[in-house]
Design brief:
2 copies of one chain form a homodimer. By secondary structure, chain A is α+β, with helices and mostly antiparallel strands. The first copy, chain A, has 3 helices and 11 strands.
Chain lengths: 197, 197
Amino acid sequence: MSADLREVRVASEKVLQSGFLHVFRDRVRLPDGNLTQREYIVHPGAVMIVPLLEGEDGATRLVLERQYRYPVQQVIIEFPAGKLDQGESTLTCAQRELHEETGYTASQWARAGVLHPVVSYSTEFIEVWFARGLTLGERRLDEGEFLEVFTATPEQLYDWCRNGQVTDAKTLIGALWLQNVQSGAWMLDWQRADAFA
Amino acid sequence: MSADLREVRVASEKVLQSGFLHVFRDRVRLPDGNLTQREYIVHPGAVMIVPLLEGEDGATRLVLERQYRYPVQQVIIEFPAGKLDQGESTLTCAQRELHEETGYTASQWARAGVLHPVVSYSTEFIEVWFARGLTLGERRLDEGEFLEVFTATPEQLYDWCRNGQVTDAKTLIGALWLQNVQSGAWMLDWQRADAFA
């Protein structure tokens, strides 16, 4: 890290604590010694799952969701995702969210990487996990959660990323991972679900 | 759009208005008729630029930045980006931000697409523009803005996306676009900077 870019906390104040968003305002010392304020959301972190459904023909299909996202006033196409519960590991969260939202459980898992959706105003990180060996069970949505589950081919997903039908950042990054895993450029380290325990 | 996923605003209240973050809390009607609350940040929108620097050897290098991002307490590698000023077009903003942050002006521009960094709690969108035909001038950072400009090859960027050195969502999505433009899978419609006027 370039030491001369660092900003140092002088004071911190919670300016909004509500049901959902927790906003802090910190007083920080800039690299030139001046003081300024930084406002940001404190977020517990989240996971996203890229679920690979192997068809009888050997072709892969992806499990995706359509969900109305109120801030952007649109139905958005997304990979399954959700926030970490207190003390929960990212894999446990990924297994829980995949099952709750889509009904699927997976026999094999691989951690791809981590992303920061908005480095300028949120502490949020999202860990990206791939899942395969899917078995369909019963989904259990949270109260007040409405979403449609559907499947698509990787080629359909790439097309939607190009033509603007997919705009969700984490899902676009899922496509980046998938494309490079499919081409063999990036490797995944697959493990049986019980091997992580 | 699936009509049965839609959430309808019943009331809206600004719960935080400060120097930087504007937070709203809306009362909304869910698809099943129940009422709930949605909290979100209202953001003016932003642009990101993927600046292509053609070397004397014909090889392309990318103009990137290193910046300390206080919410994630790390120096983050990013493509140049910035928020829209009131009434500003995304191209004008892209040209302004590229020049202010890196000193470069570009003779040709192409709009790639749009992304939503956090569909669950911000109205923010980021338009992605490619720039080429770069000429170096003098950069003019905002007061209190500290960042390092550097160049890298596309292959270095892809490597950093894979190994976790790049975690910024918009920059990962810039890599998705660049990779598909380089392979010829996705096309850009390049225009001279003055052709947009």
